[in-house]
Write a structure and sequence with these properties.
mainly alpha, MetI-like fold, 2 domains
Length: about 325
Amino acid sequence: MGKFIVKRLLLSVVILFFVMLIIYTLMHCLPTNYIETMARQLAERPGSTKSAAEWLADLNAQYGMDKGIIGGFFTWLKSAAVGDFGTSWVHNVECTEKFSDVIWVSFVLGAVAMVLEVIIAIPLGILAAKKQYSGIDYFVTVLAMVCISMPTFFVATLLKLVFGVHLGWFEIAGLTSARTFDTLSQFGKIMNMGWHLVLPCVTIVIISIGGLMRYTRTNMLEVMNADYIRTARAKGLPEKRVINQHAFRNTLIPIVTILGGSLPSLFSGALITEQLFSIPGIGYTSYQSMIVGDIPFTMFYLTFMAILTLIGNLIADLLYAAVDPRVRLS
């Protein structure tokens, strides 16, 4: 186990190196020179003592844009390796500082949505498999296909229209109530923010449960047709025990692998959902940075996503071996 983890970590470092090289190359080859735009903005700020040309030279030197792709990449990599990703041009603070301010909103949103997704999708998938070709099975199948087919913006708009505009139960944008938030107690502020996350969370759950329901049903049907399940039934074991202790445990193996690989979505933020509901999480912040050419924060966010993906894949492999004794990582 230890050798496997060390080997995978070393391989992940190599993969991350080339991913960061690709990220830097893409930013370096952007058709619009955002650095020149930023230099002009810095020169026009009140109290600036440098001209646009001087700011341009400073920014090019800071991000290695004056050394070519390879030389510039190693200049940026040297700073990134110690956690220095530069200052966000949009937010005018360190990228890591802005990240620490917004990441926990996305984490709470993603964690709650993931828990609800598992609680809803897996039992429905198992129920559909147990009652194959019944009315419940057809209902779950149709529900799953509807959820898979609906785009995020449609679900979010529909929820805002019904529960925000017509019923008035929720505010349709923002993380806090603009008028009353400052007058609330600490507990009231937490509840107020939680209330604003309900519709975004429901949106993520609706667009996510379909795939997991279908996957659970398919794997459950495959396991229930296996020889050892027929043997367990032939021995006279109760159907409940056959399903819960034999079939479900083996169905759990690929599901755990999928959930282990979902780590990036837990921390990276639901970019589209946060944007539609104006939730200031990491997804919303990164989107705003991308559309205005905030190169430092964009490179930081893409690097962060790459690291999460590599860690998620490693966790998925470890969980697969943990739930399936037949798998040996060596």
